[in-house]
Amino acid sequence: MEIYRVDPRFRKRVGNNLLVNGQARILHDKQAVYAVVVHNDSDLDLWPYLAYMDTNGFGINLLYHPEPTSTPPPLRRHSFLEIGCGSGNAMSDPLSFPLPEHQQEDSGFLKLFVSTTYTSMGLLEQGSSSLLGVESSVTPRPATPLRQDETRTQKWDTALACLTLTQSMRQGKRVD
What we know:
The chain has one domain (about 1-135, about 150-175). The two termini are about 25 Å apart. Helices cover about 0% and strands about 40% of the residues.
């Protein structure tokens, strides 16, 4: 998993990967937007689900949830998927990570789930998504029953990234 700042006008990645050893320290900018790049180095096609976990209100917001009708699965073997760049199968708005006005630093988590079969993850969402500045675009769907042959072959994996947002301070004043 990688995190990049995005040029909002062209919806293209700019700069280097902000995620190093599972952590990203981001200097807060109200205008900044981001994209997450998910890599699949496996020999399997995967269904990815990306959630943001807010440490303030304990909310969980799904940032990416594929459509069940996607064929083939969105994260193909030996490929990558950009979430927040507005391209490919993961066409979505760039992501923002606001910092509450009264705080100098805040943390949250990006949790990536991948599976070899589609699974409705809409029920994972809880609490307020107001910290992300967007309403969830994910509609909870009823659980998809597994066929008997899928129960033996279904595989899961996860990845976790910690985001720490910090304020720029100049002469004791907050700079946005």
